[in-house]
Every structure is written in structure tokens, then in C-alpha cells.
């Protein structure tokens, strides 16, 4: 059987994040990717210039079309932007009973532009997070979900992960990529004890789509049947390699994309 992962997210017109990053990640990890588009963004490596939301009923229709035909093995959820779309996705998940769900609570773009309505945060927290197998906020997103301040160290990350678990999350991975220091540390808490995943930090500006790629990579591994801690470890390694290879690409004037196909492309110096 072909392993299938579904991404439910927004489209990035420069191809670095969102649906495009997710599908590239699935393909690189040898998983077939299907998609449900929640929003169209006019963006590049510098900024988000406009967002056009897909009507919630059409988001639901896309999900039901996929569910009626494809045997989906895992789902990654990214940009949802509004409360009604969050509600539509929660309704659509009823057709995917038992399928692992990785929720990346996308709130702010790499450029700093907001991607989630302020009044939708509560809907994300109360409606969708309890349905996810894993929630993957970065430091700012974890703080926003808890109405607090960003964690300053690994201990505070673990405390916030515990609080999100107590608030209804099944498992939490707090990403430390935006912190300072020579390494990037992520903290996973699934109800037992916090696990730390550490990787060296690359000296590059090409990090557009890192969060999308990590959550998509975790979903791809879960689709293959990999246990959660091992899925996070494998996904972290893939993303780290894609970041370190990113400068091979020459894309845009701002924050460029990761090199999703670093293990597949040949003759890199010619690209």
C-alpha cells in the first residue's frame, strides 16, 4: 500500500512554506501527498502582501472529497486563519477517525505578518488542539496559546509544554528555533517526561518554511507507522540537513526556502 499524508494549510506563492513546503517534504520522505487548501497568500521571501481565504464550506468539501477516496495515513494541519475555517476542519476530521494529526498552530509568518485572526486563537485552543495527536508551536505561538510570555530556556519550554498538555493537548512539541544560542532545542512532552531534541544552528537566512517543514516531516513519519518520539527525531534531522543545505539555492531577496530535496538533487553547483 502507498503511504499517504494529507496537508491542510495555506498556499505560499513563493513555494517556501505552507502547502508547497508540505508537499515537497512528503515527496522527499517518500510519502504521497494530498492537499486541502485553506487560504491563498500573495507572498514572497520578503513579506505577505495579501491573503484570500477559502470559504469554510469549501475547505470541508475538499476534506470530504479526499476522505471518500484516499486511505490517508496521517494529517498535517497548518494555516487556518479564522474561527470558521477552524470549525470546518474540526468537522472534516470526523471522516478521518484514528488518523494521526499533527497541528502546527500557524499564527505569524516568518516575515512577521499575522496569519491568524486574534479572535480565532480561542477556537484553535478549545476546538482543534484536543483533536490533534501532536501540537507543534514555536516559542511565540506557545506563549500566545497560554496568554503568557515566551519561554526563555529549556526548563520554561518544558513547563509550557506541560501546561498545554493540561489544557487539552495530547502531546506537545515546543520548537526552540527562534531562541538564541549555538544549538536549536525542541522539547517534546507526551504525558510522561519531557524529551529534548537538539541540533546545531546553521548560519543562514534561508529558514522560510522551517516550521511547516518540521510538522510535515513528523506527519510523514507517523504515516509510515513510526512512534512519535522517533518520528520527531527523524523529522528534526531532516529539517536540520535541509537548513544546512539551503544556501545552495538562490531564491528571492529575503528569507529563502530550505532545500527540501538536498538528498536527491545532483550537480548542486549548477543550480
What does this structure look like?
- With 271 residues, the protein is α/β, with parallel strands linked by helices.
- It has one domain (4-270): UDP-N-acetylmuramoyl-L-alanine:D-glutamate ligase, CATH 3.40.1190.20.
- Helices cover 34% and strands 19% of the residues.
- The chain has a six-stranded mixed β-sheet. The protein has a three-stranded antiparallel β-sheet with strand order 7-8-9.
- Strand 5 (101-103), helix 4 (121-128) and strand 6 form a beta-alpha-beta unit.
- The protein starts with a strand and ends in a 27-residue tail after the last helix.
- The mean pLDDT is 92.
Brief rundown of the structure:
The protein is built from eight helices and nine strands. The chain is α/β, with parallel strands linked by helices and 271 residues long.
What's the helix and strand layout?
Blueprint: E1 4-12, H1 18-28, E2 32-43, E3 48-53, H2 56-67, E4 74-77, H3 83-92, E5 101-103, H4 121-128, E6 134-135, H5 139-145, H6 154-166, E7 172-174, E8 183-189, E9 195-200, H7 210-223, H8 228-244
Parallel strand pairs: 1-2, 1-4, 4-5, 5-6
Antiparallel strand pairs: 2-3, 7-8, 8-9
Amino acid at each position: 500500500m502507498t503511504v499517504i499524508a494529507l496537508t491542510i494549510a495555506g498556499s505560499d506563492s513563493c513555494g517556501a512554506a505552507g502547502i508547497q513546503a508540505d508537499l515537497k517534504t512528503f515527496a522527499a520522505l517518500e510519502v504521497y501527498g494530498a492537499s486541502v487548501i485553506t487560504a491563498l497568500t500573495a507572498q514572497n521571501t520578503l513579506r505577505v502582501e495579501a491573503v484570500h481565504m477559502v470559504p469554510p464550506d469549501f475547505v470541508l468539501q475538499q476534506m470530504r472529497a479526499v476522505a471518500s477516496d484516499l486511505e490517508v495515513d496521517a494529517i498535517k494541519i497548518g494555516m487556518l486563519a479564522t474561527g470558521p475555517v477552524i470549525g470546518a476542519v474540526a468537522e472534516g476530521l470526523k471522516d478521518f477517525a484514528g488518523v494521526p494529526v499533527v497541528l502546527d498552530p500557524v499564527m505569524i509568518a516568518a516575515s512577521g505578518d499575522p496569519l491568524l485572526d486574534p479572535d480565532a486563537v480561542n477556537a484553535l485552543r478549545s476546538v482543534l488542539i484536543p483533536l490533534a495527536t501532536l501540537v507543534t508551536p514555536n516559542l511565540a505561538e506557545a506563549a500566545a496559546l497560554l496568554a503568557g510570555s515566551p519561554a526563555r530556556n529549556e526548563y520554561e519550554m518544558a513547563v509550557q509544554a506541560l501546561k498545554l498538555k493540561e489544557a487539552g493537548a495530547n502531546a506537545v512539541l515546543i520548537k526552540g528555533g527562534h531562541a538564541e544560542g549555538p544549538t536549536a532545542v525542541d522539547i517534546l512532552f507526551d504525558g510522561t517526561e519531557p524529551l529534548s531534541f537538539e541540533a546545531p544552528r546553521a548560519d543562514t537566512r534561508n529558514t522560510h518554511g522551517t516550521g511547516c517543514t518540521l510538522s510535515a516531516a513528523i506527519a510523514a513519519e507517523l504515516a509510515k507507522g513510526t512512534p512519535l518520539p522517533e518520528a520527531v527525531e527523524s523529522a528534526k534531522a531532516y529539517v536540520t540537513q535541509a537548513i544546512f543545505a539551503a544556501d545552495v539555492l538562490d531564491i528571492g531577496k529575503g528569507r529563502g526556502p530550505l532545500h527540501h530535496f538536498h538528498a536527491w538533487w545532483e550537480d548542486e553547483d549548477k543550480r
